[in-house]
Structure formats: structure tokens, C-alpha cells
Design brief:
With 462 residues, the protein is α+β, with helices and mostly antiparallel strands. It is built from ten helices and 26 strands. The protein has a seven-stranded antiparallel sheet. Strands 20, 21, 22, 23, 24, 25 and 26 form a seven-stranded antiparallel sheet that branches. A hairpin with a 5-residue loop joins β2 and β3. The termini are far apart.
């Protein structure tokens, strides 16, 4: 027992020495001294401008200053008739009441030519233009084109006017800053800013008209005003908004300047728009169409039909081809094709790149004047007569009916030639459109037709 107790004391003593040595020589302190110091503040430098953040700062002031003096306020006085029923029930005769519509316009020459929307001046009896300096002038209509919604006005002044030069809308890029200048809600010289949201935008399933889409605020009264880039160049004429309320909700649309410029030049030179037509009907390629036609493409314009004697037919474009490019412009959808061609005239030549059975082919096409048109009021589609048609129908003039809407299917109109409407001779599609545009929806209309055997017949529509 004594030996065991001695060994225990020796072991205990040795352990104490070992622990003390470790504490003295190896173990480090696990605490820090507390020292009172000033609280450190972190200083950060936040950029107060786009330039400070390394981004080129956009200055709108120069473009706005250039633009506001060239944008005018347009007042359109029309006459509206009171309802005949009102006279019957309340005992007074129907009368004409003046109504005032307002919009905007852009001065495009020092001698007083002004471009605006057709719907701004439509059915006007009097037009009044107010400049940014509050001077007011009477305006006359030089010409208008309903399909592009562009009209040209003229005012006479003693002094040269500030004006805007047309820019190149084809060179406009998505994401580029733009300004919309006009007179919304009669608030003159209003400037709003936004970016180009999309190009070659079609906003109606019945039309492939091409628009520039922006998110610059546009409201009623802005129609006909200027869409300019930061250099103050006119790249569009503000035309429409998409809204359930009638006011701006984030989308606005402008006619591209290249189209507006071409329409203006046509109205000045010819009195009406000269449209260079490719001569095809087709559709945007989508998944359903690609599956139906067995296509390997997902972009481009699928050619469904080619009109006889058109530029496309002369160049050898065929049904089933896919249009991929025109000149240097890529074509992903129909509105891009029509948007580019809208700035062309009959006789202009373009290079069309088509995909035919997975092979890219470039064909030169000479554009021709429009050969077909859908007539207002009745909706008949007609074409100018070819030399072969003139021999077949034994007539030197008239228009051939090639498509008929459902309500007139039982009249046997298709493939007959219209030569007269009431007392008006019809020689070509332009005359046909003018005559049918004057037909009353509620009146009596007489149409003189020629059949393939050369027999004339007259149909009365009421």
C-alpha cells in the first residue's frame, strides 16, 4: 500500500510539472486588450450622374431646343350633322354643328410645309396652325395618304420658319434615346423622353404597316408631332398609342421618317403616293406554319402566292420561297419587309435574298406599281387589266375582280370586269378606289360589268 501511494504522489507531481510547463511556454493568450478608439467611418463616393458612373451622360436640352420651335399646334374644324331623329322627336331641323379637333405637326421646310397625320386633318373644313411663338395661320392641305396616315400642309409666312430635317429611321437602334414633342391635351410644346422599344412593329392584324415603338409618353394631341433622336433629327411622326383608356400606358408608335419623307415627296411631285410593290402575299414564319409546310426556318417571310406580271414574278420568286433579306436589311417578319419597301417607288430595284429548299439565292427585283387593291365600302379586291385580259374581255379599260367577300359570294362577281359605277367610268384601280370611296353605305349603287364572253350586265346594290 505504501508503494502504491508513493507511485501516485510521483505521478501527480509529474503531471503538475508538465501542465505548468505547457501553460508557461506553449499556450497563448485568447483575449485582447480593450482600447478606446474613435469609431471608423467608411466613406463612399456615389455617382450623382450617368457620367460619374462611367456612362456617357445624355443631354436632351439641345435636341429639345431644336425641336419645340419646329412643332406646331393644329386645329381642325369639322361639321357634324345632328340626328334627323332628334328633329322628328323634338321639332327642330337637323343642322350642322362645328367640332374642333386638335393635334400636332412638324415644319419640314423654311417656306412653311408641315407634315402631320392624316387623321388629324381628316374631314376638315378649316385648318388653323399655331407656331411655338403663338402666331396663327390658316393652312391648306397639299395632299394626304390614309394608308400611311401622313398628310402634308402648307402655310404662307413672310419670314423663314425653323424646321426639322428628316433623319434616317433605318439607322435608328433599339435602346436609343428619343424625344416626343407635341401638344397633348392642348398643352403646347410638351417634350417627353424615352427609348426606342422596337422597330418594324405592326399594330394591326389587318395591316403590315411598320412603326417605331417607343416608351416616350404620347397622349391625345401628340398625333402628328415629332419623334427625334438626341441630335434633333426627325426620325418619326408620332401617330398612335395602344391603350384601353385612351391615354398613354407605356406604348406609343411613330411612322418612320423614311416612310414619311417618301410620302411627302410623292405628294409634292405626283399629288399622290407612288408605291413600289414586290407582288407577293405571305405570312410570318411561326412554329405552326413551319410544321405545316415542313420548314426548317423560324424567321423570314413565307411566300404563299406571287401576283401575275409583278416584279417578284418577273424575277422568278416562287410560292414556297422564304424571304430572308432585302438589300442590306434582314427580314424576320412581314412588317420589316413592308417597312423597307414603303420607302420605295415603282421602278426602284432591290436585291432580295430568298431561301429555296435550304439554299440562299439572291435575285434582283424591279418594283412595280400596285396591281391590286381592296375597294372601300364593298371590300372587292380588283386588279388592273393585263394585255391578255383586255383581249379576253374585249375592253381597253376597267378593273378585274379577283376576290369577293362572303356577303357578295352569290352575285357571281369574281373574274368579271368593272367598267362603270353609276355614271363614273372606271379605267384603273386608282379610279376604282376613288369611285368606291364615294359610294354611300345607305344609297343605291349601279355597277356595270363585263363577263368573259364580252357581255355587259348591270347590277344594282342598295
Amino acid at each position: 500500500m505504501k508503494r502504491t501511494a508513493s507511485l501516485f504522489l510521483v505521478a501527480l507531481f509529474a503531471g503538475a510539472i508538465t501542465l505548468g510547463s505547457y501553460k508557461l511556454f506553449f499556450e497563448k493568450d485568447n483575449f485582447k486588450y480593450v482600447q478606446e478608439t474613435a469609431t471608423p467611418f467608411v466613406t463612399t463616393s456615389l455617382p450623382t450622374s450617368a457620367a460619374g458612373a462611367g456612362i456617357n451622360e445624355v443631354d436632351f436640352t439641345v435636341a429639345a431646343e431644336k425641336t419645340v420651335h419646329a412643332v406646331v399646334h393644329v386645329k381642325n374644324m369639322t361639321l357634324s350633322k345632328s340626328s334627323p331623329l332628334a328633329g322628328f322627336f323634338y321639332g327642330f331641323e337637323s343642322s350642322q354643328r362645328p367640332q374642333i379637333g386638335t393635334g400636332s405637326g412638324v415644319i419640314i421646310s423654311a417656306d412653311g410645309y408641315i407634315v402631320t397625320n392624316n387623321h388629324v386633318i381628316d374631314k376638315s373644313k378649316e385648318l388653323e396652325v399655331t407656331l411655338n411663338n403663338n402666331k396663327t395661320y390658316e393652312a391648306e392641305i397639299v395632299g394626304a395618304d390614309a394608308s400611311s396616315d401622313i398628310a402634308l400642309l402648307k402655310i404662307d409666312t413672310e419670314e423663314p420658319l425653323p424646321y426639322l430635317a428628316f433623319g434616317d429611321s433605318d439607322g435608328t437602334k433599339i435602346g436609343e434615346w428619343v424625344l416626343a414633342v407635341g401638344n397633348p391635351f392642348n398643352l403646347t410644346s410638351t417634350v417627353t423622353a424615352g427609348i426606342v422599344s422596337a422597330k418594324a412593329r405592326s399594330i394591326s392584324p389587318r395591316s403590315n404597316q411598320s412603326f417605331i415603338q417607343t416608351d416616350a409618353a404620347v397622349n391625345p394631341g401628340n398625333s402628328g408631332g415629332a419623334l427625334v433622336n438626341t441630335n434633333g433629327e426627325l426620325i418619326g411622326i408620332n401617330t398612335a398609342i395602344t391603350s384601353q383608356t385612351g391615354s398613354y400606358v407605356g406604348y406609343s408608335f411613330a411612322v418612320p421618317s423614311n416612310i414619311a419623307n417618301k410620302v411627302v415627296n410623292d405628294l409634292l411631285e405626283f399629288g399622290r403616293v407612288q408605291k413600289g410593290i414586290l407582288g407577293i402575299s405571305g405570312a410570318n414564319i411561326n412554329a405552326a406554319l413551319a410544321e405545316q409546310e415542313g420548314l426548317n426556318e423560324n424567321e423570314g417571310v413565307y411566300v404563299a402566292t406571287v401576283e401575275e406580271e409583278s416584279g417578284a414574278a418577273d424575277a422568278g420568286i416562287k410560292s414556297g420561297d422564304i424571304i430572308k433579306q432585302v438589300d442590306n436589311v434582314k427580314v424576320r417578319k412581314f412588317s420589316e419587309l413592308t417597312g423597307y419597301l414603303s420607302a420605295k417607288r415603282p421602278g426602284d430595284k432591290v436585291e432580295v435574298v430568298i431561301d429555296r429548299e435550304s439554299e440562299l439565292i439572291t435575285v434582283p427585283v424591279t418594283l412595280k406599281k400596285r396591281l391590286t387593291v381592296e375597294l372601300p365600302q364593298m371590300g372587292l379586291t380588283v386588279k388592273d387589266l393585263s394585255e391578255k385580259d383586255k383581249k379576253t374581255y374585249k375592253t381597253k379599260s376597267g378593273v378585274k375582280i379577283i376576290a369577293v367577300p362572303q356577303q357578295y359570294q352569290d352575285y357571281g362577281l369574281e373574274n368579271k370586269v368593272i367598267v362603270k359605277v353609276d355614271d363614273n367610268d372606271v379605267r384603273n384601280i386608282e379610279e376604282a378606289r376613288t369611285v368606291f370611296n364615294g359610294i354611300s353605305k345607305y344609297g343605291r349603287t349601279s355597277i356595270t360589268l363585263i363577263s368573259k364572253d364580252g357581255e355587259r350586265e348591270r347590277l344594282i346594290f342598295q
